[in-house]
Automatic annotation (TrEMBL):
This is Methionine biosynthesis protein MetW. It comes from Ancylobacter oerskovii. CDD domains: AdoMet_MTases. Pfam families: MetW. InterPro entries: Methionine_synth_MetW, SAM-dependent_MTases_sf. Gene3D superfamilies: Vaccinia Virus protein VP39.
Amino acid sequence: MKEAARAASGARVDLLLIAELVEPGSRVLDVGAGDGELLALLANTRGCDARGIEISRAGVNAGVARGLAIIQGDADIDLADYPDDAFDYVILSQTLQATRRPKWVLEQMLRVGRRVIVSIPNFGFWRMRLDLLLNGRMPSTENLPYSWYDTPNIHFCTIRDFVALVEEVGARIEHATALNGYGQKVRFNLPWAVWNLLGEQAVFLLSRGK
């Protein structure tokens, strides 16, 4: 994430957007919690009962050292162990593309949480398209810095791909925000095709469809 995409508080802009979508005092599960940056933000600014699962031992240790409730777990397996409606919100930040079963993970999140918040990097961003067109190689950016052979991101998608997945699992988009390469919001009233071109990443608030 670019330094320009961080607020004065030092928090990532996408994490601040996520926190704004969460009602104060909510029960929250952060899937792929990393070192607990989002959990700490939710606890400190929204008064949430925030818990997390993280696959890496280093991330778990870092979060626990900060006094956060993080356990080691794999989203591709362990979400099945949580009961229905266990949380008000289940959050997956910049992690869906690293899961082995993205559709299953999203379905489980919608089962476990009354609402789901997902943020994704957008592989359809214009700079990535241009880099692939001009150089003929898989793009590497500050937001997606890995080489193709060592990336943890195994299921790249675009904003339009994710919207199609949401429709396929029968969920409803309650709110969405796209951020450009400078961490600024792309105008809300633009169609998905334009967001797909101008948005480097996006944040979605989802609920179960009727």
